[in-house]
Design goal:
globular; 71% helix; 2 strands; 19 helices; mainly alpha; 454 residues; two-stranded antiparallel sheet
């Protein structure tokens, strides 16, 4: 018997998956129509009649598709209306930053944080960057610790939105003294200081050139923060104050991001100064700081190997022994998740130090991908992910700054046909339901045969 062709459209084979989908979709529409009219659907219709109705419906829909595509004026009006509504909401959020109530200002900052991280607003913000910067400056100067932390985060997102051009550089020069003052103020909120450390690192990264004055100053400032965790002259680590490991971690990660911009002459000095001290910090009592130190050591070794092919870490045997201990740490007094995370990271660090082996990671967004194939690219990606959170993929897809940093080229313009081919959630649900029903029938037949045999 000749085989029927797979994937043939309009197959009338009884019990086929396509027919199940069509019947489910028609029954769903019929039930909705019955609810609206207060009348039950006709239950006497045959399967063939139902199928033919659905097929004729799809045929008429496909014939009108070209007409719909040609007349997109209504869609453009809807998009323009939605854009205007979004801008009105953003304007209200900016106005809320000048409100007397701290609660209202915090709500405005949170709304701006969510908007800036989830969409691209370059045109809107270019016209209002000075207004937004003035509001953020006021929050940083006079706000509470919570408001200062939120304002520093929003300012970082503003620099990413502006794309690292002259506008971002001007804003960074204006707010850098305030961010610096909060960071070095021991009486300031820990959360605010952490947020300012991240802001200094990221804003300097996107807005300054190599060997720039701002880069040198920011590196020195961040160093002064996390170097307080280095061992003293006797070789013992200082007892951490409450909240200080989190601050040291934020400063170290911001510093390591800026190190990726340094020229070879500067890198050589930094490697000689920091690598021995960082090895001692692997014994820190805070798991997150230990992990940050381990990743920074791997990054510095990678940069050193880029400068000099035969680069070797001083006392590498001791370093590898320490990394092996952390990669197999099973101390019960540490949380299970902390132990698992620590072991995973330090296994990767150890493999790289010993064999120059890096576990490549693929980040997918839309129809594109970016490959994280080095410690430097991981540090850059993690820094953007930390500030953009779930919006990092959207910015990778559309933000020219991130696309330039990761070598993705200009944003892709997808053809309407590509977008139209994307299956809807409702159709996916119908397909899964039909597949489940067909699978249940098949299993029922097998069970019946087993019963007959027994």
């Amino acid at each position: 018997m000749p085989r029927s062709k797979k994937g043939k459209r309009g197959s009338g084979k009884p019990g086929s998956l396509r027919q199940e989908v069509l019947q489910l979709q028609l029954s769903a529409k019929a039930s909705l129509k019955g609810i609206k009219n207060g009348v039950k659907g006709d239950l006497g219709a045959s399967d063939d009649e139902l199928t033919s109705d659905v097929l004729s419906h799809y045929s008429s829909a496909s014939e009108t598709t070209s007409v719909m595509d040609e007349g997109t004026g209504g869609e453009q009006v809807d998009e323009q209306t939605a854009q205007e509504e979004t801008e009105d909401k953003l304007k209200q959020c900016i106005d809320n930053l000048m409100d007397k109530s701290s609660k209202t200002r915090l709500a405005g900052l949170e709304s701006l944080r969510q908007a800036f991280s989830s969409r691209l607003l370059y045109d809107f913000l270019t016209e209002r960057r000075l207004t937004v910067s003035d509001c953020l400056e006021r929050s940083l100067k006079k706000g509470s610790g919570e408001e200062q932390a939120a304002a520093a985060t929003v300012f970082t997102l503003l620099c990413i939105q502006l794309g690292g051009g002259d506008e971002a550089e001007e804003g960074f020069k204006m707010l850098r003294p305030i961010l610096t003052a909060i960071l070095i103020d021991n009486s300031a909120s820990i959360a605010a200081r952490q947020s300012c450390a991240r802001a200094l690192g990221m804003c300097c990264y996107v807005s300054t050139a190599e060997e720039g004055e701002d880069l040198i100053k920011s590196l020195a400032l961040l160093e002064s923060v996390f170097m307080s965790s280095y061992p003293n002259r006797e070789g013992t680590l200082p007892t951490p104050k409450p909240g200080s490991p989190g601050l040291h971690c934020a400063a170290l990660q911001a510093w390591s991001l800026l190190v990726t911009l340094c020229p070879a002459s500067r890198l050589t000095v930094l490697l000689d100064l920091h690598l021995p001290k960082l090895q001692a910090c692997l014994q820190s009592s805070d798991v997150n700081y230990r992990i940050a130190v381990g990743e920074t050591i791997a990054l510095l070794v990678e940069l050193g190997r880029d400068i000099e092919e035969n680069f070797e870490v001083e006392d590498s045997d001791s370093l590898c022994e320490c990394l092996k201990s952390l990669a197999t740490d099973g101390n019960k007094h540490r949380a299970k998740n902390d132990r698992r995370k620590q072991r995973s990271i330090f296994r990767e660090v150890l493999h790289y130090i010993e064999n120059e082996d890096f576990s490549e990671e693929r980040i997918r967004f839309g129809v594109e991908s970016v490959y994280i194939d080095s410690w430097m690219r991981r540090r850059i990606y993690d820094a953007f992910k930390e500030i953009l959170e779930s919006g990092v993929r959207h910015h990778l897809q559309f933000n020219p700054l991130l696309r330039d940093i990761f070598g993705l080229g200009a944003p892709l313009i997808l053809d309407a046909a590509v977008k139209a081919n994307k299956i809807s959630r409702f159709e996916k649900h119908l397909f899964n339901s039909a597949a489940f029903k067909a699978r249940t029938k098949q299993r029922a037949k097998v069970r019946d045969k087993r019963a007959d045999v027994m």
